[in-house]
Amino acid sequence: MTWRLATTDAGFDAAFDTLVDARRESDADVARDVAAIIADVRARGDTAVAELTARFDKVDLDTAGWTIGREECAAARAGLPAPLREAIELAAARIADFHARQKPSDSERTDDAGVRLGSRWSAVEAAGIYVPGGRAAYPSSVLMNAIPAKVAGVERLVMVTPTPGGEVNPLVLAAADIAGVDEIWRIGGAQAVAALAHGTNRIARVDVITGPGNAWVAEAKRQLYGTVGIDMVAGPSEIVVLADAANDPAIIAADLLSQAEHDPTSQSVLFTDDAAFADAVAAEVAAQIPALATAAVAGASWAAHGAIIVTRSLDEAMPLINRLAAEHLELAVDAAEAERLFALVRHAGSVFLGRMTPEAIGDYVAGPNHVLPTGRRARFASGLSVLDFMKRTSFLALDAASLAAIGPAAVALAEAEGLPAHAASVVRRL
């Protein structure tokens, strides 16, 4: 049953707490299975990867081939209808432009004590991106993960994607060609993540792994964090829409369903200050679901996790929205009002301002990354960026005068901490 709450309800606080704390992610069984897969890949390498791929994807890698070559990707790109190819190229250009502007600059200065200090940024050497496979794969995920890595300066970009039953999505291959992916492996699941993290005889290890996947993929990334860097632990998609009664209920319903259709565990939440408008949106959602090719998924998501919350005012909704810390937040109000309310947003993965900014634009062509924190993680995490493929190295240089200026303080602190060798390494230079 879709949640229907109002802040005037006697039990609202408790009900909203339940909504915020509801868990929609993997359970202990998934964690156990993933741990076994990781251990198997680490122990047996390519043999384990091949056996697991045959079991889960029904693909014999030795027959089908372990990799997909650049020629096949280029052919897939050339074979696309021109409007579709141009759409992917437009998206790629906008994503590249946005992320190029994120790239940090090195810094250096000499302070008042004469110490030269600063930071230098560099890209990781190798990155892996996970792309869900089969006919339901998404070329936008390729662009959003691969392009920031290339902009960052990653030298070796590896893509893993399952090909269940041998199915390969030409749109994914075309996107990989456009984005400049260097290697593509026909593997998926937790075994692919493990192969990228630990390396095998065939597959060289990488430094960072990003990209969406099912519960097993997300759990594998979580377990392997520390062995490699990851973007985030991704969970089911979510959207919060704040809308007043001046909106078309059919449009707001479509916005809610745009995320509900991703997965039965996705979550779509409407906040409004108008009860009649809430009823109209609910009716539109019910009317639109049967017409969707994704009706079964969207309907299950809306029934189990959808919510409509009526507040006394739009301002009253903002602290509640911050508690949800949603992946996507639409502020579907007039432009000036959207800017005012945006100033009150503290926790959200990405915010879509105004009545003419649907979240779906951000999924494809706007430019900002669509890989965003879910599961309330926008409280402390950010969307994918070039920084996920870069690291910062600090540096400092002293001469005799600057060492004399700050060295005695270091000696005092080292002695206070009971570390005489630390102190001596400074004293012997003074």
CATH topology of the largest domain: Rossmann fold
Strand order in the largest sheet: 1-11-10-9-12-13
The CATH architecture classification of the largest domain is 3-Layer(aba) Sandwich
**Count of helical stretches:** 18
Q: Tell me the name of the CATH class of the largest domain.
A: Alpha Beta
Span between N and C termini?
Answer: 74 Å
DSSP strand count: 14
Uncertain segments are none
Biggest sheet statistics: 6 strands, parallel
The percent range for helix content is 40-55%
Features:
430 residues; alpha/beta; Rossmann fold; 3 domains; five-stranded parallel sheet; 18 helices; 47% helix
How would the blueprint of this fold be written?
Layout: E1 3-6, H1 12-21, H2 28-44, H3 46-57, H4 61-64, H5 70-78, H6 82-100, E2 107-110, E3 116-123, E4 126-130, H7 139-152, E5 156-160, H8 170-179, E6 183-185, H9 189-198, E7 208-210, H10 215-224, E8 229-230, E9 238-243, H11 249-260, E10 267-272, H12 275-288, H13 295-305, E11 307-310, H14 314-324, E12 328-332, H15 335-342, E13 350-353, H16 359-364, E14 390-397, H17 400-416, H18 420-427
Parallel strand pairs: 1-11, 4-5, 4-7, 5-6, 7-8, 9-10, 9-12, 10-11, 12-13
Antiparallel strand pairs: 2-3, 3-14
